[in-house]
Design brief:
This protein has 448 residues and is of the alpha/beta class. Helices cover 44% and strands 13% of the residues. The strands form 4 sheets. A 7-stranded mixed sheet has the order 2-10-9-8-7-3-4. It comes from Anisodus acutangulus.
């Protein structure tokens, strides 16, 4: 025989709450209540039915199309990520060593970082791009915050400028990385362009660049690629950089550098930072967005930094306080793992040295791919001057191929690249260069 137990007080409370929800609303006929559009009852219409399908990202969409292709000959030259001679992603040996150190350190915890990120990472990142002996660092005129790779660094900088800088116009090169105009527009800046690439020479349109920046309103922001310009691979010479610096300082234009490839272009960390250091050396103010995606192969770790070089230490301190107010409601604080890898490598002399060797090996392989592709086109007698392939620098080459030729190469040779003819040299290998050279030769001779 079972004795019935009375409900517990907590069960009584739950039943009471449930009963209240089931009671008719006072003053309403209970039968007139209908399910809301956001509920799971009554109807199949979505509140998002009006949403149209967005187009694929023009760069990442290349990989989507590549993945659907079943041809064994397919070749993806669209996405900017380093590949080995075997076509495989590369994790640097020095990164594996740093990660092992971090794993073995039992004192490490997973607590939140501060809003500005890992202090060692910020300090070492500023030294890497500005130089260990930079007067700006010694005078505490630099504030650096850890951000979500290069894109996040650009966005934080853009949001800060939109709130606190007197000019809301930013000039970007024509062409530029496809994400640049979106980042700055969504941050609230007005985006204009300056001439940069000359299709006739497949080189720098330097006169056009000077004219456009010369006619920009005083105080406008100018986005500059520190090295290995994306997508063209065309960089100014040091003398040209000096002319740009003088022009910009004379007009009070604010430089905002995007440094995505330091050490990855020439193989030298110092050489690839020269443009930035020239602007810092004159005592003027500068913004620099850094990414460790390419030069440490930390793509998915999303490791970056934004440094703002100010007139004095007091201004830098106030700028940092406002950067915190940008970051806090955006993502609160950055992730710890990738920044810890970078800091471990940069502060250990042996690891740092090994990194520079691995970095140069990656840069040298890309330079070899440029030479091999140039030689292969010349051997085939492909019409046109292809010397721009070896003159350009960094991960990308702006081939000069048009949309129809690119489409022809995709259809007939299963080679994938962005429609503007940009190819990632890191996606090539000695084995695949002949296939690409055959495709380019066919495209320019048959699909003109």
């Amino acid at each position: 025989m079972h004795t019935q137990q009375s409900p517990s007080p907590s069960a009584d409370r739950r039943l009471s709450v449930l009963a209240r929800h089931l009671e008719p609303i006072e003053g309403h006929n209970n039968h007139s209540i209908v399910a809301a559009p956001t509920s799971g009852y009554g109807g199949t219409e979505s509140v998002f039915n009006h949403i149209v399908r967005a187009p694929e990202d023009p760069i990442l969409g290349v990989t989507v199309a590549y993945n659907k292709d079943t041809s064994p000959m397919k070749l993806n030259l669209g996405v900017g990520a380093y590949r080995t001679e075997e076509g495989k992603p590369l994790v640097l040996n020095v990164v594996r060593q740093a990660e092992q150190q971090l794993v073995n350190d039992r004192s490490r915890v997973k607590e939140y970082l501060s809003i500005t990120g890992l202090a060692d990472f910020n300090k070492l990142s500023a030294k890497l791009i500005l130089g260990a002996d930079s007067p700006a660092i010694q005078e505490n005129r630099v504030t650096t915050v850890q951000c979500l790779s290069g894109t996040g660094s650009l966005r934080v900088g853009a949001e800060f400028l939109a709130r606190h800088y007197h000019q809301r116009t930013i000039y970007i090169s024509q062409p530029t990385w496809g994400n640049h105009p979106k980042v700055f527009t969504l941050a609230g800046l007005s985006v204009k362009s300056y001439r940069y690439y000359d299709p006739a020479t497949r080189g720098l349109h330097f006169q056009g660049l000077l004219e456009d920046l010369g006619s920009a309103p005083s105080g406008a922001i100018v986005l500059l690629h520190a090295c290995a310009h994306n997508p063209t691979g065309v960089d100014p010479t040091i003398d040209q950089w000096e002319q740009v610096r003088r022009l910009m300082r004379s007009k009070g234009l604010l430089p905002f550098f995007d440094s995505a490839y330091q050490g990855f272009a020439s193989g030298s960390l110092d050489t690839d930072a020269q443009s930035v250091r020239m602007f810092v050396a004159d005592g003027g103010e500068v913004l620099v967005a850094q990414s460790y995606a390419k030069n440490m192969g930390l793509y998915g770790e999303r490791v970056g930094a934004l440094s703002i070089v100010c007139r004095n230490a007091d201004v830098a301190s106030r700028v940092e306080s406002q950067l915190k107010l940008v970051i806090r409601p955006m993502y609160s604080n950055p992730p710890i793992h990738g920044a810890s890898i970078v800091a471990t490598i940069l502060k250990d002399r042996n690891l740092y040295h090994e990194w520079t060797l691995e970095l140069k090996a990656m840069a040298d392989r890309i330079i070899r791919m440029r030479q091999q592709l140039f030689d292969a086109l010349r051997a085939r007698g492909t019409p046109g001057d292809w010397s721009h392939i070896i003159k350009q620098i960094g991960m990308f080459t702006f081939t000069g191929l048009n949309k129809e030729q690119v489409a022809f190469m995709t259809k007939e040779y299963h080679i994938y690249m962005t429609s503007d003819g940009r190819i990632s040299m890191a996606g090539l290998s000695s084995r695949t260069v002949p296939h690409l050279a055959d495709a380019i030769h066919a495209a320019v001779t048959r699909a003109r």
